[in-house]
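Reproducibility note. Readers wishing to regenerate the assembly model reported in the main text can use the exact inputs given here. Chain order matters: entities are listed in the order in which they were concatenated for prediction.
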Amino acid sequence: MAKWAIAIHGGAGVDPNLPEQRQEEAKRLLSRCLQIGVDALKARQSAVDVVELVVRELESDPMFNSGRGSALTAKGTVEMEASIMDGRQRRCGAVSGLTTVKNPVSLARLVMDRSPHSYLAFAGAEEFAREQGVETVDNSYFITEENIGMLKLAKEANTILFDYRIPLTGADTCSASVGSLVPDTSLQMNGLPISIYSPETVGCVVVDSTGNCAAATSTGGLMNKKSGRIGDSPLIGSGTYACDLCAISCTGEGEAIIRSTLARDVAAVMEYKGLNLQEAVDFVVKERLDEGQAGLIAVSRNGEVACKFNSNGMFRGCATEDGYMEVGIWE
Amino acid sequence: MGWAIALHGGAGDIPVDLPTDKRAPREATLRRCLDLGVAALKAGRSPLDVVELVARELENCPYFNAGRGSVLTTNGTVEMEASIMDGTSKGCGCVSGLTTVVNPISLARVVMEKTPHIYLAFDGAEAFAREQGLETRDQSYFITEQNIERLKQAKEANRVQIDYTQPQPIKEQAIPRSEGDSQIGTVGCVAVDRNGNLASATSTGGLVNKMVGRIGDTPVIGSGTYANTICAVSATGKGESIIRNTIARDVAALMEYKGLSLKDAANQVIANAPKGTVGLVAVTDKGDVAMPFNTTGMFRACAVEDGHSEIAIW
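Running the prediction on these inputs yields the following structure tokens for the assembly.
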């Protein structure tokens, strides 16, 4: 019998000034979701079932950027995406552009299990959701007061930045609320000052007691994104990957993750260079991200777990059958 | 070393007795595209420019499954997708769900160069195309008689299947197999210039009778398209297979991480995918070319600076 292991994340790139209370709330949520996964693993549920149920839990809570609590598009709406991959036979399912589906990761699973395709998006995905009878709600369900406020700040920040790569300094800001970001305005993720940036994505990777690996990732995407923008989360090989060796879920600057096919590369260096999980994760984050900021969680079929990020923090939690269990935010 | 270019018009179950009236125009297009690409490389155009212009030409040709001539969704509409990648910067641009944009590959390039995003789809992508002033035409421009016929045949073939859309337990359902059309499926081009800069572009109408909203491998970086400083790859075939096998990235990964030659890497990737599902074209920074496939055939062409060139189907 193989040893099970699980890792979860709530996004990479965290505001260093995040209030203590918020940090505690986040850690409590991570602990709760981690425990749900651990209980399911102890009950011998399959890896793909466990990643789905854990990500559903993360989507349902408004704290992280997925499902309820998703970041808003430039239009002030929510467009969610997700993907899931079962390491056995590398079956996969992905969805993008969801506006009413309560649990995007579950629709991704249905795409994998109940359609002849791997990836459905926008109106077609919503139509499939109705045909499948999944729970749908009004778009407003996903929108939180906090994110409405964040969108406003993001728009203000973007009107100041002509080129999103130019760092915002205190002297250039013209509104009091943006000006209050002065202490860390040099810290940016995806073109937004870190205090406005909503760490994208939640995810879960699992190896179950039979040694099978699975991964799932879900997100509302980039705050103030253009409607129709797709990030790395639903892209197999970028945000999510699972094979017979390992499973990976990534988070952070989508562009960097896609260009470096981050999730696939972890598995590829294990497969083709013979690196072990930690070595593979270290190599990929160090050598493959160029100037991008991102993080990932990974498990191997041997019951190992690894987390790594080059961003400022990553909400995460890991547990193994040996009894190890930990949640964290910072390095 | 020197420049090299390879392009494809789709891999699939192309019958060896393909009638002349279907074969000739496709071969002529491959030849024309090859000549255009070669001329551009000789004139010193960047590989990114070259792959874009060749893909545009293939999109404009109604005999291949991209742009005009795209296969139809189950609703009888066209939903096109494409991606482009610059090996030097690893910049990429992807689009899906286009219904009126005449050249999807060009929109993908604009997404790469003019937005902080990589991938735009459906209404958002269409709106962006208009903002950017790209050429758009009514849906009817893209739809051909042959594709209306193909859709009809595909629907007839599926008619005996249980309707998979009923929410039933999986073991009672017959999930229709995703059969790619035999004659056409995606276009693509890879190129390297004399300085070893690489680029890749892929464009498609997708799978005949596909569900509305279905996205295949073509716009997924690492699956249908990939380019870095070692090689550039464009894949074609059954999208779902290409995604699971991360075909384009794997060719480069085998070269990079296992030290395989292009030929060995490309052959291994093709051999590891189920027979009858994939093909690819690839070039390296050294000017090597590979065009393997495990289907009956693949419309393809290539040329290298030393003079060798080839146009083939089987």
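We highlight two features of this model. The first helix of chain B runs from residue 20 to 42. Residues 30 and 73 of chain B are 26 Å apart (CA to CA).
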